[in-house]
Amino acid sequence: MQNSERGFTTEMKEVRTRFAPSPTGFMHVGNLRTALYEYLIARSLNGKFVLRIEDTDRERLVPGAENVIYDTLKQVGMTHDEGPDVGGPYGPYVQSQRKDIYLPYAQELVKNGKAYYCFCTKERLDSLSQADAFGGYDRHCRDLPQEEVDKLLQQGVPYVIRQKMPVTGATSFTDAVYGEITIENTELEDQILIKSDGYPTYNFANVIDDHLMHITHVVRGCEYLTSTPKYNLLYEAFGWEVPTYVHLPMIMGRNEDGSVSKLSKRHGATGFADLVSDGYLPQAIINYIALLGWCSKDNREVFTLQELEAHFSIDGISKSQSVFDYDKLTWLNGEYLRAMSPEAFTSLAMPGYRQVFPQTELDWALLSSILQPRVTKLNQIPDMIGFFKELPAYSAELFINKKSKTNLENSAVMLEAAIPVLEQLDTWTVECIHDALLALPEQLGVKNGTLLWPVRIAAAGMTVTPGGAIEILAILGKEEALRRLRAGLAKLKAENKE
Fold this sequence. Notes:
By secondary structure, this protein is of the alpha/beta class. The protein has 20 helices and 14 strands. The strands form six sheets. A three-stranded antiparallel beta sheet has the order 5-6-9. A hairpin with a 5-residue loop joins strand 12 and strand 13.
């Protein structure tokens, strides 16, 4: 049974999706979104998620890129049911290890008049106009006499095998997101199926492997909509069932002038590893990427991966372009950080702590308690806590605060009152410091803020800090805290003398 409106199969059979990346570099957020949607389609429909490495483009392979694929999927929690590392019934799952599979299929197409041998040299192809009606190739070898083909093959002349596309009419297909799509056949080039090195092209290997691995749903970017008829004509040539196509809207980036264009590095980090380096959590990244082109029925935005598995559906995917909003990702990341246990946050924050304090031991739990409500990206931590290691140079003007009703004169009075009280403390904890300091405002006839503002400025040298004066003093330790308060008082006295 076929649902013609949405274009996806509803008959009762196992759903099988595949993520088939090429190991040619970093994991772009667009590739990761494709993997995520394939994973979620499989999980939401109790199907199988397959990982297949497509390494037939030998010139573009990057050493170590295959490990990037495995590491990324592991970090975000997407486990595959079949793949090169876990095996499965339809392996091998690396295309270069399947090289001998493809040529017989291409030769079958040649035999049935659906493909042909092309002996054109690189020089001849380079000389063809790129504006040719057939997309750059003039189909020179399409109708060579069989005798000439046999002769060239016997002579060992290098060749490729090209698909014989129809030159009239149109090809239509139904996409689960975009509905009915029709492409004029005159726009379809006689694409190469087998390259001169014997390896299949990406497009041909995709079709063969998807069929042999019983893939039911193919997910990819909408930029491949116009090339889908090429795939379908191959399926039809073999007499195979065409899978359900799910094309995804393009991910855009916002330019400085407010316009949008395809997401690229000029907009910010576009790779998963770069986003992690920028301080984003893998689970926040995957949550945000899920929202780039998909919306839950209740417009909810914060999901764990397991919750996405339960809520995801193909009919929630939009046709509209999505804009990668770094501010939105930062907000979402902050939500994840705040929802963590204090222990989990401290563990994640520790590299940032150690960047500033490689040897020194502080009250990490206390430090985390003031940072966790405020941090939105982990890479903010070193800058946020740098003042604990070294008091920044600051102007006495910072002591002036209208809201706290402080000026240079009464700030000096506040510090002169606070320092001896703090000097008498035997136990240096938040509670003890709190009780000691907050007994003073009533005695001095001022509000709490009038006392605490100059204490915080002297302790931190900054107007904006994580935590208040009392927490800062506790983290600094008694000796360093008092040293800074005395230095602040000296700065005020010198300023007041002038």
